[in-house]
Amino acid sequence: MGILDLFQKVSESPTNPRPAKSARTFDVADLYSGPLAQPQAAAGVAALDEKLRQAYFWMVNHAIISPYYDIEYQDGAAPSYAFGDHKSKLVLPSGQSYSSFVLLPLLTLAVRRRCLLVGGPGRGKTASAMLMGLLAGYSLQEVKRAIQHGQPQMTITDLLGNPLPADLVNATSMDSIRIAWRRWLGMRVKIIDEYNRIPTRTQSALLTVMSDNYAELLDQVYECPEAAWYLTANDDAGGGTYQVIEALRDRIDVVVKALHFNPRFLGELLARIEAGIKPEEVVPAPVIFSEAELDAMNAAILAVKLPDPLRRRIEHFASQFEFFEFAAEQMEYKTKDTVKLSGIDFHLLEVLDTGKDQANDLGNQTRNGLSVRALMTVLIYVKAMAWFRGDEFVTLEDIRQILPFVLHDKLVPNPDAAFFEQKGNAAYRVDRIGWIRHLFDLSCQEYERIRLDRSDPVANFDAELARGLEAVPATEVRKRMAAIEHSLAEWQRERKLSGPRADDILKLKSLHQRYANYLRWLTSQS
Amino acid sequence: MIGPALGGQMQAGRAAFNQLFRAAARSHAGLDGAAFLAWLESGLDPVAEAVAAAAPEALARTVLELYQMALPLVARGWLGPSAREPAIDAGLREVLAALPCCTAQAPAAFAGAVLNALQRLAAADPAKARRWSQGMGELAPGCTDLEDALALGRVLAWRCGLPSLRARALQDAQTLPAVAVQAVLGLPAPLSPQRLAELMEQPQAMPEESKAESAIRFLGWAGGFRGFGGPFARPPRVGLEQGVLVAGDGDALCRLFGDGYGVEAVKVGNGHPRPSPGAASDPRVDSSGTLHWGGRGRQFPQLAGAITWQWQAGLLAVSLATSHRVALLRCPP
Fold first, then answer.
1. ipTM score of the complex?
2. CB neighbours (10 Å) of residue A182?
């Protein structure tokens, strides 16, 4: 049992027991490890995932009173139930499952990205963000002082800092004006409370800090350290005092909803009030991370492997959305982005797209595609999820569970899509988490139906080129180009052009171009 | 009555300390306020005074971390006036107060390490834990570096009767000041690098011996009945597992250690040891307790009823049909 129990005990290891990966090396010569205490000094990088899980369980068991286990993992048969006339489904997960409201902020701490906590007042958004600051090793006083409270009068100097008055008077150039930068800029956890109450101009200054990691004031620049960001909003759908600028929204990596308080936990709330306990004042020392540990966690997460077959599934899913056949003549410009930039109503062009099965075409359900930033975030968070569960490889379920939170604000639904009119799909208009998870499931079904795991000519062409062109003779190059042309000719026979097929076509065009250039060079050499 | 160092800290952080206690009391039903106050006075106060004198800047952190650490331990009866093993409670206080610089460097980590060491020593024999904490108190005050203190602790634990630490302790001895190692091992002169290398190569050679001793010597009994705190439910058998001496009863499999400082059976897994027939020249024991080796026989009455024996690198293990313990003898090659 760990020695450093505080408020409530930290869960004992292993928090997610797995079969041993290899024979455990037993060190009989270790005098200082034992049942009474686990000295922190002995904890290496390998133990950090365990430490993060302990932090998670401490929050779930003791800091958050009514947790919801909405990130479900199955480990064998899971009983399910349907309630009421509309058959509301409940699954009792057979694997270790998680509360997104706790897990996603923790993963954000580990990967140093940006998390938006949304939900009605009093649901623990700010408290949760503060706990992240405490887990990162800051004192409660430091965290409280560092919170930036959004309000309509917030100025850029309120946010970033003030020029020193003496310098303002005496300075002969802008360079000589020193700035008293706000302390929060230098912290590894940054909390912006009610960010949608910040005036637009100040939002722009915040954008620079969030996206480029530096602050600028009167020609002076402050370089910020890598940090995890927590933003809160009572209503992220435009109900704040100011409209949030799109670029700022786009910088948010995950969106987590603070769900309602289940009154069945009132007894726990009462006990906490009576005992006068505030979780933020009693964070257990064993779950507090040092700066070095935060860095090491991030490095360990990046080292988690994403198997190629799963990467292909993400590619297939991402390919569904950007393609828009009637947006342009040239294949490269047949995108929703072209429509958006033109300013034409999306719906006007959409009605032209009559050939496809509107209800089942996934691309038809969104008004945009996925940006590179969104895909990068997906890759990082799925790795973080796998690492958190103690895995060396990402699993399909990790992707399925994480995608909705990353794409929550990234994938804009098309409310006019026939899909939403279908029986049983009305809830997807408002439930983005469920909708995106459903989209991924449909994409995977399609991926399996066309057996891309078994036969993927584009992947084969890609692998062929990845082996390098050095010493590849002209005859071989011509053979490969002919194979590409043959595939394109085959695909011509397909009656419907889908997003994934369009990306395949453009990929083959790019490979063909690489071979053509190489062939030209070979010819010039001879 | 507590001193000014701890008193000042308690006064300054009264609300926070009270809150920590209340929070811990919710999850540890056995946490008694009077017992915890008694531990603050007897266990934390001398440590706080020592740290206040040696590293006043670390006093607040030390008090907070040790306070937090002790809450569940007092609740579970490891520390405090009704500690289940007084040698651990007293040993912790003694070591932390004797090494205030090390305590101040990493209070919870150092205290945790010391607690584990005391628990392991006390599990073998409470007297070993007392000797160790006393030795640490006497020998290490000059030591201000945490890692050095832990290394000295390992060497001392070996001497106090944990031969499983021998290899690690000898490694530590190579990097520690020779005078400190000499004092910890109670030697008349420092160990030379050559002698240290010999000790590492000859697992039965002891630091105080000037040359390799060839006499057979009974070292002691390792293991024991599970009902009395030992590892075995049935009389074990001995053998080799991956080249090391082990004893097992089908459930617990223990690695056997023994040298001039003591004997130990450390659980490493489950199962029976695999029968490992030795060479004809290896020592053997008959059922009357006679040890035959090199054409000579020597009677050991305590080995009467021997059922299995195994010799490896100068150490002979013998199990009996009627005992849950394993006899270990030094039989240098």
1. 0.80
2. 19
